[in-house]
Design brief:
Length: 214
């Protein structure tokens, strides 16, 4: 589960800021309630096991599908770099969203004349809702994205030149996914019609890429 620890800690600072009767300013309070560095480090630690597991599965799938990647592990440099870049991007995106959300919650609390206790409850409730949402994102979207990124990296390393987008061919497939599938085989360095180089192209995307040397 996601840890609300850093925010809980920071809320002590929020109360101190409030009681010291400093500027009653949403930006200042949001900054006091949220330690960006601690939060980003916690987010990276939390998503790492998801990405490592997925990357291992992706390597195995390429060995099974194409007979490649048997010499690669999740600790091979180019895989490790790829996963670290995704960890950092995820942590930066989620932290930025949280800061905006917490700032909005505090601004709303101030506008309603709430005291620091109510404000604290409001921020914690927001953070809990966010945590559930992020756990879902980590398990589905980020894992799916890592799976496809690792497969692509192995295909390129092997000198494969073409790729094709595959969808689940049921009525839940979105139009942009189907449009990507419909173009068939394209050069590996070209984007699909949706603008994506590979799946996933939205949070609930279930698509995958196949590769070939033509
Ligand atoms: Zn899709």
């Amino acid at each position: 589960m996601w840890q609300a620890y850093s925010v809980m800690q920071s809320l002590v600072m929020l109360e101190a800021t409030w009681e010291a009767d400093l500027l009653i300013d949403a930006d200042a309070l949001a900054a006091a309630a949220f330690n960006m560095e601690v939060e980003m480090a916690a987010l990276q630690r939390t998503i790492r096991p998801f990405l490592n597991t997925t990357a291992g599965r992706a390597i195995t799938s390429m060995t099974r599908d194409y007979g490649i990647g048997a010499d690669v592990t999740i600790d091979t440099d180019f895989i490790r770099e790829l996963l670290q870049a995704q960890e950092s991007r995820f942590a930066a995106d989620v932290s930025a969203t949280s800061v905006r959300g917490i700032r909005d919650q505090i601004a709303e609390g101030i506008a309603r004349g709430e005291g620091h206790y109510q404000l604290r409850e409001r921020v914690l409730a927001y953070y809990e809702r966010q945590s559930e949402w992020r756990a879902g994102i980590a398990a589905q979207y980020e894992s799916g994205t890592a799976f496809e990124a690792v497969r692509e990296a192995l295909a390129m390393r092997q000198g494969m030149t073409h790729k094709a987008w595959n969808d689940m061919m049921d009525n839940r497939v979105e139009a942009r996914c189907r449009a990507n599938s419909n173009v068939g085989s394209i050069p590996i360095d070209q984007p699909f019609p949706s603008g994506h180089m590979r799946p996933l192209c939205h949070v609930a995307c279930r698509c995958w890429c196949t590769y070939s040397a033509e």
